[in-house]
Amino acid sequence: MDILKTGILPKNLSIDERYSILLFIKQGSNAETYRVKGSDGKLYFLKLFNFAKLHRSAFDVNNSLLEIELLRNLKHPNLPAYEDSGELIFEGKKYIYLVLDFIVGETLAERINRAPISTVFDVKRIAVDILSVLDYLHSLPEPIIHNEITPQNIMLDLKNNIPQAKLIDFGYARSFNQSTKAYNKDGLNLNYVASECFNNLYSPQSDLYSVGAVIYHLLFGMPPWFKDVSKFMADRVKPEEVILKERNKPLLFPNVEAQIIDFDNEILGILKKALQQDPDNRFQTAKEFIQALNGEIELDGGAGSPIKPEQLVEQKPAKEIVKKGKGFAAIAGMQHLKDKLRHDVINAIENSEEYKKHNLGLPNGMLLYGPPGCGKTFFAEKFAEEAGYNFIKIVSSDLASIYVHGSQEKIGKLFKEAREQAPTILYFDELDAMVPSREKVNNQSQSGEVNEFLSQLDNIGDSGVFVIGSTNKPDSLDRAVLRAGRLERLFYIPPPDFQARKEMFELYLKDRPLDFGIDYVVLASLTEHYVSSDIKLLVDEASRKTIREQLKRITMETLETTIKNQKPTVSMSDLKKYEMIRQEIENDLNAESFSNRPKIGFKP
């Protein structure tokens, strides 16, 4: 069951008779964020800090919270405006709260997860907004270093026609003159942190490095020298060593000219200088960085010299297949499955020669199963785009024949053509109709078709063909199709969880005329147990209702009314049946010693 996370403070709680809790937004390691309404009728952000969880470096010599004291005295159009702060005792625990002006918009991380930024002009505009803040912070009599500039901490204010980037979250911010002992790295995303910070040495130049890392991410889809350090998180030293080792390699620049408008070598030269490992070779001030982005200064030799040919990497999938469409970026949620497939399948496809050196076969196929309407077919199509493979969709009627053994011949011909067109993804929709359990089939001809399918499927991955099957009836499949060397990876596709539903509403509503105040968190909370196709239907119906009532924009009220009138298409009893089937499949596979098979479905 999808459980909506709730915060410490209940809805409608009054704080000092000045602020009323409207909505819990998110939870961090030592703080929670809420949307509140002030006694003046305005909306605000309220950040609630748990005294017991704050690191000692978060306080100044007067035992005041540094983040609050810093923001209290800062004023800049690209910073959240300080409104109020205080202490709160709730249920016997002591908290500190900070109130900031409400920003109508989304984080940069949410923006690029929804749709990549496609022009260098827009990338530069965001960077200049943030650098203007840093120019202000670094030029104060007592300079302030932010220390945590990432896409998650850049907010895009959407109240005007042109989005304005604002730097948020000053939890790691410190005065440049403070002792290095005041610097705490716990919880930081190290992929955006300058190398000298690993030794507790922070400076204006380390903030500028982080801006360069954000620009690199916006252009190329990941931070520079990216390394997944999640498996090293138990040992805080090891991730730093892994990243430093990676940064000893040349910085590579994937070729994204086809995806990024006005992309040229000038931005690469700027990045090369911004991301120098030696702080003395970087931009020395935010103003200098801005001038370079605006084309007001030319970079000198060395760090700003032309990019070497070996640093330019063609961003092409295996075997020169050009990736079409947005791939996984078009899928809301399902992050666990996307990460799993990118790691286990796509990496193997793109590094096939390395697999051959280790005498490893390429992945063969997978089965997607679960309730109808949860996006199995859409996921398969986007997987093909992400991998850069040709995509062939087959339904049972495509293989039907009036002749004896005719279907067997069609199956053989289909796999032959897939091999010839490799790399190819063969997607079999409603696989249970094509490969039914032979224990339940009395027709000898149909048993022969199943045998032919299984024969063709054996180790097909080595031929550059990856097979995906989907079914709403996994218990009707012939079990032999799930053996190693066939559809050896199984994934349960459930109804979308809270985060996925929120992203789906954002995705389906983004290109439609919207009224101010659409609350995606509320929409997601109202649609528990709705499948993916239900959410698309809700948005379409809200649009139709808007047209019928001759309204100019889709309102929050229209969406809520539509949800109230449209029940989920898959009943709770059916969802429980699918969960039971899932458990039965897992138990059966364990009993048959499929111990090396990846766990089915998502982690609870």
TrEMBL record:
InterPro entries found in the cross-reference section: AAA+_ATPase (IPR003593), AAA_ATPase_domain (IPR050168), AAA_lid_3 (IPR041569), ATPase_AAA_core (IPR003959), Kinase-like_dom_sf (IPR011009), P-loop_NTPase (IPR027417), Prot_kinase_dom (IPR000719)
Protein name: Serine/threonine protein kinase
Any one Pfam family match given in the protein's UniProt record, by short name: AAA
Gene source species: Haliscomenobacter hydrossis (strain ATCC 27775 / DSM 1100 / LMG 10767 / O)
PROSITE patterns in the cross-refs: PROTEIN_KINASE_DOM (PS50011)
Membrane-spanning parts: none
Chain ranges of the Protein kinase domain: 19-294
GO molecular function: ATP binding; ATP hydrolysis activity; protein serine/threonine kinase activity
Signal peptide (UniProt feature, chain positions): none
Keyword vocabulary terms for this entry: ATP-binding, Kinase, Nucleotide-binding, Plasmid, Serine/threonine-protein kinase, Transferase
